[in-house]
Amino acid sequence: MPDTMEGRFEALTLHVLVVLRRLRQLPLPAEDVAQELVDSVFAHLEIALREMGIGDFGVPKRMKKLAGAFFDRTSKYDALIARGDVDGLAAEVAQRLAADPASLRPFAAVVIASEDKLADADLEGILKGPAFASVAESRRILTVETNT
Fold this sequence. Notes:
Blueprint: H1 5-25, H2 30-51, H3 59-83, H4 86-97, H5 101-118, H6 123-128, H7 135-147
């Protein structure tokens, strides 16, 4: 994943989406926690925009664009993650970043492995801090795909 504003936004979006996907599967009050997570992400994005020097008049316009981008991405990435489609996810992210999909396969594998790792997490575990997959754990996914 490129260390750019766009790359960081994609990484943030994908990690938040993996947690939101798990929260959707849990009983109440997980739905409220999911909304609080999204609200918190956008509050921090607003702070980041202000720290970058965006003025009071520019922030709402940028926030609207960020919200649209976030929800557009989550709707597209959601189906790819549900299918465990590492190549499709890498290609979709690469298209947005004008990057080589092959260079994003390891990151996409981490996202898919994180989905698997969070599958057994309860709400308390998520609130303590979700356990995302490591690069080493994601290699299992890449290995299985190349062997099939």
